[in-house]
Design a protein that fits this description.
The complex is a heterodimer of chains A (about 170) and B (about 100). Chain A is mainly α and about 170 residues long. Chain A has seven helices and no strands. Chain B has a domain at about 30-90.
């Protein structure tokens, strides 16, 4: 019964993800694209929840849907896109690009299909200690094993903040 | 009904990656190209979480957090560049920015 619900939910979220993704790359109006991208990102958040990654589910909604998409919508309003909406939407090389993507897709699909029995993992790793939630486990690992990458990521964010302000400023 | 395995998640992730690649390669509007890059990064994250779940290991989720951090930095700087570009060239079409073309 629980497996059935999980299966149904997976297909619902997968439809949201793929449908939103296809609408994002095909819409003429950039705002419609952004709304479709939000649907797709919410579907991805649902998939995280299905796989017991509760912390990433919250991060995905707060950061992606609340942060990045807000930034995108601000820029769409700041930049005049009316002219672009009435022009050609796809570039001249679209046929070559589609052929290249189809070739890569055929390759990836073939190897996924051939290796699909190899994904049945016999036994997982040590697993989480009992009584430890997902957020606690992530925090334990992030602040001990991955402390240096964590600090480097904070430097990266600082550089990004300074860089975006410098880029968007009229004259420095 | 058959249960969902890691294979399903990998197939979904590959499909989303291909959709994002099509968007990056074929669209002219720079804003939508940046959105397609977000789709690609999300495909990567689905992959990482699927293996994290299958192997009962939290490291995949840590990597997903770092990918999200990179996505935020990329979006902020990219949109800043886009605003500077629009101020100088008055266009957001990627194939009209051809200063380096022969």
């Amino acid at each position: 019964m629980l497996t059935d619900i999980n299966t149904i939910l997976f297909y619902v979220f997968a439809a949201l993800v793929l449908g939103g993704g296809i609408l994002t790359v095909t819409r003429r109006n950039a705002v419609h694209s952004a709304i479709s991208l939000i649907v797709s990102l919410l579907g991805v958040a649902g998939l995280y929840l299905l796989q017991q990654a509760e912390f990433l589910f919250a991060v995905q909604i707060v950061l992606y849907v609340g942060g990045i998409m807000l930034l995108f919508l601000f820029v769409i309003m700041l930049v005049n896109l009316d002219l672009a909406a009435h022009q050609r939407q796809f570039n001249k090389q679209w046929l070559v690009a589609l052929a290249a993507v189809a070739a890569v897709g055929a390759g990836v699909g073939y190897f996924l299909y051939r290796g699909k029995d190899a994904f049945h993992f016999a036994e997982g790793g040590a697993g989480l200690p009992p009584g430890l939630g997902n957020t606690e486990a992530i925090a334990d690992s992030l602040f001990s094993e991955y402390l240096l990458p964590f600090e480097i990521a904070s430097v990266l964010l600082l550089v990004a903040v300074v860089g975006s302000v410098v880029m968007a400023k009229k004259r420095i | 009904m058959h249960p969902i395995t890691t294979f399903h998640y990998l197939a979904l992730s590959a499909a989303l990656l291909l959709i994002g690649t099509v968007g990056v390669l074929t669209r002219r509007n720079v804003v939508i190209i940046l959105m397609s890059i977000e789709l690609i990064l999300n495909a990567v994250n689905i992959n990482l979480i699927a293996f994290s779940h299958a192997l009962h290991n939290v490291n995949g989720q840590i990597f997903a957090i770092f990918v999200i951090t990179d996505a935020v930095a990329e979006a902020a700087v990219g949109l800043g560049i886009l605003i500077a570009l629009f101020r100088n060239k008055e266009t957001v079409q990627a194939d009209e920015m051809d200063l380096l073309k022969w």
